[in-house]
Each structure stands twice: as C-alpha cells, then as structure tokens.
Amino acid sequence: MRNLLVLSIIAFLIFTGCGPKKEEASSTNDSTLSELYFPYDKTFDWKKYEIDTTLQTKKNYAHPREWMDLKRLYVVDINGDGKKDYIYSGSGGAGNLVEISLSTADSFVVFTQEGVIGNVKFVDGKVQKLFLADTFGAAPPMINYSIIRVNYQNNVPSFKKAFFAEKIYNVALPTTVNSTLSEIEVLRDSLIVRSAPIELDTPYQHILEMNGNQLGKINKGTKAVLIGEEKDSLKRSWSCIAVHRHFNIFKYPIPFDPSNPKDRIVWVESAGIKKQ
C-alpha cells in the first residue's frame, strides 16, 4: 500500500509539472545553429523587400538627425499592412544604431538598439526575427550578437530578445556550422578555452593578459552548445562552443556579469567534452 501511495504521488507531480524541473541547458532552443551564428556575418538583401520611395521622403524622416546615413535607411513593410515603415541600420553618431518606425497616423519609433542588422527573417509578409551584431571598442574589443523575436498584437509589433551571445574580436568562427543543435558538457576538471582551433601558449598577449590564444578555463560540468568542429595540422580535433550564459569562464578577459548573462563563443579541445 505504501509503495502504491508513493507511485501515485510521483505520477501526480509529473503530470502537473510540480516535480523537479530540468535546468535550462541553452538559450538556443528555438532556432537552428545555422540561423543563430552565421546570419550576422551576411549582408541582408534589402532590395528584395524595399518599397520604392523618394530621397526627399527619407530626408523628411531623418530630419533633423544629420548624422543618419540615408543609404542605410530602408523603407519596407514591417507588419504586412501595405504601408511604408522605416528600418535604419547604420551609424548612430556615437556608435551603430538600429531604429524601427511604424507608419501610422502618428508614425512612431517602436524599436531601438545599438548595433547593425545582419539579417532579417520575414514570414507571411511580416518581420519575424532580426539578427543584430554590435562591435564596440572595449578592452578587448567585443562583438555582441542578438536575435530579436517580433510578435504582433492588432498588427502592432513588439520586440523581445530571444538570444544574446558575445565573441572577443579575434575568436574565429568555424568554416562550417552544425545544422542541428547539440548540447555538450565538460568532462575534465579544468579545460582551457581558446580563440582558435589550435594550441598556442606563447607569446603573452598584453591586451588580453593571457598566454598565446588562451581565453581562460571552464570547469567540469560546464554546459555549452556545439557550433562546429575543425582539426589542426596535427589532426587534433577542436570544438567551437557557445558556453551557456549561466556558467562562468574563469580568468575570461570580460568579467562575468550575472545581471546581464550571455553565451560566450570560444574553442576547446574536443577530447575534453562529451555530447549529451
């Protein structure tokens, strides 16, 4: 009778979702890896979606912001209502800027963020996702990647950040990226992360305060997403990974900020990890 009672309680917890929840392994679960990591490095073909308009119309929109590059101001239909909306992706004076305005009776700005647009995903004539990259001159220089998901209510768009990752300027991306998402976990007690698929421990990098191409260390149990794999001249296998935002990279040049977590793209020796 006691065993039956225990089994009944377990079944109830599972059915109601009140049991222990599995820790979120990655922020990438709603997209394929090819969509997550490579669209940022492509130039989006705006001509496929731009609406013919006059130069004066663009000037009227930009006024009095003389810094706005009219060649980076695009007139498109964002929400599929047939009206001219505006997307700006270019220099914002102090840095790069993305600004989106919706054409209504009062034509208003609905979204702004630092960076530039690398790609836009349209579904059924509406913008569904924006892929942004932002390079800024920190020490060391960094590239922030983000995906913005666009939802609509009464045909008015709302914008929510669905993915956020960072890469130190000199971290290489793999030649080819995996087509499907694959979670990995670190096996070794300590595993060195690097900026490229090769072991270089000299010379000392003064800007990064690291030896060779080292970028720090991750501990056993650290979880990440496998982006791609390559081999060096010695046939040693290396994995490009996005370390999950909730795991620390020790001695990483950019301090870990739990209030603003993001995935971090690095390289590790493949022998030190396992696929889940």
Provide a compact summary of the structure.
10% of the residues lie in helices and 41% in strands.
How widely separated are the two ends? 38 Å
Count of domains: 2
Shape: elongated
User: What is the count of helical runs?
Assistant: 3
Overall residue-averaged pLDDT value: 83
Side-by-side strand order of the widest sheet? 5-6-7-8-16-15-14-9-17
Strand tally is 17
Radius of gyration: 23 Å
What profile does the largest beta sheet have?
9 strands, mixed
Structural class: mainly beta
**Strand portion, in percent?**
35-45%
Stretches where pLDDT is under 50 for at least 5 consecutive residues are 1-29
What is the H-and-E element order?
HHHEEEEEEEEEEEEEEEEE
The residue fraction in helices comes out at 10-25%
List the helices and strands and how they pair.
Elements: H1 2-16, H2 33-37, H3 55-62, E1 73-76, E2 85-91, E3 96-102, E4 108-114, E5 116-123, E6 126-136, E7 142-153, E8 156-168, E9 183-186, E10 190-194, E11 204-205, E12 210-211, E13 214-219, E14 223-231, E15 237-243, E16 263-269, E17 273-275
Parallel strand pairs: 8-16
Antiparallel strand pairs: 1-2, 2-3, 3-4, 5-6, 6-7, 7-8, 9-14, 9-17, 10-13, 11-12, 14-15, 15-16
